[in-house]
Design brief:
- The protein has two domains: 343 residues, TIM Barrel (Alpha-Beta Barrel), CATH 3.20.20; 42 residues, no CATH class.
- The protein is built from 16 helices and twelve strands.
- Bound molecules: D-xylose (XLS) and nickel (II) ion (2 copies).
- One nickel (II) ion binds next to helix 9.
Length: 433
């Protein structure tokens, strides 16, 4: 029985020819390929914050959305949860994600906020028993409240460090209680506005100890999920310490955490960092730290993290190509960290945004699988590096500069350039997208 989305049916797969707005054309959860159903390849999640908590503001104007659950009471938080589970029932996506601040009203004290969180976790847990929607990940909002304006783990005030650590403890407990498969840390305020007032070394050291404490607590409580860091170069901070995958990997090494923490990689953050999404995915996979994705799309002209729903099959296909090559998701999934445009006021807009995004991802995944099965890209790549296949060659060349010198002189080598065949490979790709 739907209340908020009352005139919208449950979305079913009807195939590419359907004229219905509320049907999947490409996302067919049960369709098996590459050994598992599409639902298990994609592992879609709805983000509580954008879909239910975001009021539609921008830097020049406030709330545009009127949701019956907006407000700071426990009753309204429960109404919001009811609406969330209505949407989950309509979409049939297997997962959701949340911050503490999305699901509970802020209390007058830490203790009251924690009580509110615990009550909402129980409420949501009961709804999960009958809905079949599971928790992909939980996280703490350590960036909205003004107490975090100078950072959470990196705040110059030790009381804020402690408050943040205590908050993360409650959010890890909540995530564990709800059977979450991952726990995410995104440090929007873990950076600085100006170096003039910032002790960069101290702040990075504190962030490193904080992350170690998260990992220690995970083991203490026996949380079986994966700890994920979500890199972003800036916004809201002018400079964020977890800039991109490469930067975070160096940070993990520095604090001895590279075997414990993986990456939650967001499309829009990759773009802000001056990378492509597939670059960040390929790098994380190559470093053994690929975990999960926040799927969205940035406006390529604005330079903001616009968090739009994905709408480009070729772009998404390249992302899933890297994910499939890396062996697919284990505990991770495809979280729609995406929000409506602020003029999209209607409940139907929220449903249609997810339906379209799920179809775009399904098309991208299918294209990526077909491309991988076709094998021409991988064959061309293998051929390009074929010279390195011989261990004899590797032994000689990796021995040292002198050995390379001897090799070049003895064989009188005169390497000839070979075509990188980029356009031909792009043509191969375009056969599938
Ligand atoms: C903001 C981030 C945020 C994280 C969760 O840019 O993407 O939404 O995913 O805190
Ligand atoms: Ni983001
Ligand atoms: Ni995100």
């Amino acid at each position: 029985m739907t209340v908020y989305f009352h005139d919208i049916p449950e979305i079913r797969f009807e195939g590419p020819e359907t004229a219905s707005e509320f049907a999947f054309r490409h996302y067919n959860p049960d369709q098996v390929f590459m050994g598992k159903p599409m639902e298990e390849h994609l592992r879609f999640a709805v983000a509580w914050w954008h879909s239910f908590a975001w009021p539609g503001g921008d830097p020049f104007g406030g709330q545009t959305f009127e949701r019956p659950w907006f407000g700071d009471t426990m009753d309204l938080a429960k109404l919001k949860a009811d609406a969330a589970f209505e949407l989950f029932g309509i979409l049939g996506q297997p997962f959701f994600c949340f911050h503490d601040a999305d699901i509970r009203p802020e209390g007058a004290s830490f203790a009251e906020s924690t009580r509110n969180l615990e009550e909402m976790v129980d409420y949501i847990g009961t709804k999960m028993e009958t809905s079949g929607t599971r928790l992909l990940w939980g996280t703490a909002n350590l960036f909205t409240h003004r107490r975090f304006m100078a950072g959470a783990a990196t705040n110059p005030d030790p009381d804020v460090f402690a408050y943040s650590a205590a908050t993360v403890k409650t959010c890890m407990d909540a995530t564990q209680k709800l059977g979450g498969q991952n726990y995410v840390l995104w440090g929007g305020r873990e950076g600085y506005e100006t170096l003039l007032n910032t002790d960069l070394k101290k702040e990075r050291d504190h962030a490193g100890r904080f992350l170690q404490m998260v990992v220690e607590y995970k083991h203490k409580i026996g949380f079986e999920g994966t700890i994920l860091v979500e890199p972003k170069p800036q916004e809201p901070s002018k400079h964020q310490y977890d800039y991109d995958v490469g930067t975070v990997f160096g940070f993990l090494k520095e604090f001895g955490l590279e075997g414990e923490v993986k990456m939650n990689i967001e499309q829009g953050h990759a773009i802000l960092a001056g990378h492509s999404f597939e670059h960040e995915l390929a790098l994380a996979a190559s470093l053994g730290i690929f975990g999960s994705i926040d799927m969205n799309r940035n406006d390529y002209q604005s330079g903001w993290d616009t968090d739009q729903f994905p709408n480009s099959v070729p772009e998404v296909a390249l992302a899933y190509y890297e994910i499939l090559k890396a062996g697919g998701f284990t505990t991770g999934g495809t979280n729609f960290d995406a929000k409506l445009r602020r003029q999209s006021l209607d409940p139907a807009d929220l449903v249609a945004a997810h339906v379209g995004a799920m179809d775009v991802c399904a098309r991208g995944l299918k294209a990526a699988a077909a491309l991988l099965e076709d094998g021409s890209l991988e064959a061309a790549r293998a051929e390009r590096y074929a010279g390195w296949e011989s261990s004899e060659t590797r032994n000689v060349l990796f021995e040292g500069l002198q050995s390379c010198f001897d090799h070049v002189v003895a064989n009188n080598t005169n390497p000839q350039p070979k075509s990188g065949r980029q356009e031909r490979l792009e043509n191969s790709l375009n056969r599938f997208v």
